[in-house]
Amino acid sequence: MLRGLDAAASGMIANQARQDALTNNLANVNTPGYKSDNSTFRTFPELLLERIRDTNSGVAGLPAFPGPKQTIGRISHGVYNQELVPNFIQGDVTETGKVLDVALVDEGLPTIVENGRQVQPRMFFAIQKPGENGQLQTYYTRSGNWSMNAQGQLTTIEGYPVLDINNQPINLRALLGNAPLNKSTLQLTPGGQLIAPGNPNAAPVQLGLYRVNNPAANLVKEADTTFRYSGNGAPTLYNPVNDISVAVKQGYVERSNVDAGRTMIDLMTVLRSYESNQRVLQAYDMTLQKLNEVGKI
Amino acid sequence: MNHSMINASAGMRAMQQRVDTIANNMANSDTVGYKSQDTAFASLLVRNLNNQPYAEQEPSRITPFGTRPGFGAKEAVFQTNFEQGTIKTTDVPTDLYLGGEESFFRVQRTMDSGEQAVLFTRNGNFKLIPVNGQQRLVTESGDPVMDNSANPTPIAIPIGATDFKVKSDGQITYRLGDVEQTGPRIGVYGIQNPNILNHAGENYYQLSPGLPLNQYAQLSNADGTAMPEGVAVHQGGLEMSNVDLRKEMTNLIEAQRALQFNARALSYNDQMMDITNRIFRG
Known about the structure:
Largest interface: A-B, 70 and 72 residues
Radius of gyration of chain A: 29 Å
Largest sheet of chain A: 6 strands, antiparallel
Structural class of chain A: alpha+beta
Mean pLDDT of chain B: 88
Distance between the termini of chain B: 24 Å
Oligomer: heterodimer
Number of helices of chain B: 3
Shape of chain A: elongated
Strand order of the largest sheet of chain A: 17-18-10-9-16-19
Low-confidence stretches of chain A: none
């Protein structure tokens, strides 16, 4: 069989996987806090091709014995979509004027070098949601489109509680007292502290803000615009002294960081690449057809 | 159907819902007491796939092992913006509006089942209609407006009453013959967290089922108490819709373009499937 046939097919499959990632980005072009995925291709592991030398037995008149192996070279058998790397760059921050809309601005965090790679640390909000085993776990998100539920808790749009610095859900009713919920009764400092100016007896609540040094390597994308921490240890808690370049903005929402224009161009490129792989497949098919014709009487 | 087609169609559906919400806002840009709505999105389900089972064979990876493709977006929630609308002066005595964004008039409606439903509204476009030998204060839809007593009763004044006046604390006064009389007091309810209100149609809101009324809606003007700061009943004007048409137009263009992007992605996928079908030409 011709080796390139499988390579062409693998190219089509890899392009399909890339198309999946691109359409998912495009579907989330208006999702607050969404981080776009970039797909990276990798060749299949290379194989060493060798030929058994069967022409040289060395003795005249005797049948030929297999001689020593001869190396032909290396061959690769195609390509696959190795990973989807989320792009953690800051999305556009847009003003909504709503009291419980919160955006994290962390462009100023200095880059660090981890395992020889320069990485950009990012800040995240901590929320609580049921994990795979059904138990409540801490997840991280950039989506700051929040509301207050009937129990008075601060929650995400999905209804998952937002956590404070002690990993506890935040009770806004205790903070507000009898005051109604609006921008003058509930304020958020740039350091992430919720304060109720009308209720001086209530202690301010510090939002749980976490810094992940290498988000691409340590965060796993989950549903509902959340991330699960999969690295060693735990993310670093926000430090008001060191992380001065981080700001929490009330009345703003961080939008999706998907670049619709670029995604459209990528979609076109992928389509054409898919098509050329199909052409190659067809060319191999024609070759095989010719082979079939050889034996025809 | 392949994965990317599911993504594109999920995206299209979410954007379509956003366009629907915006269209509804624009249609109600002149509705008294209407509060604009917005949709918020969240990404859908993500699954974890492994290209091959051995993590050590992929040494140059950036991300944790496996690939995690997503399944598009969904609209997670409708959010209502309870910001105060602009005030239109009408000089009609029974046109009232409320100061304070978290305040509502209480309305009672007899449902088809005979049950008395408690509804809240910001629409103060009231009328006086004769019922049982009295003039009753009712909303545009004809449902009685309730007073401020512990067991609220519909507000009514005698027939023949003139010079209908409402003070800022909700107290009604009128003139019967030549004598100024004090009538009932319009009940004003404060709802700390308007997110718990559901839309009940006709500009009414209702507490989510299962939430006790006395715990979530507080009477702001019980007899003998003053209104909280910023809360007041005003006469002779109407609170118009708080829809900001410029903002809605911008959102509409944005949502429409996003819808188009997803439709285009669907069409690219269609072409890809066509290419797949053309591999074998018979």
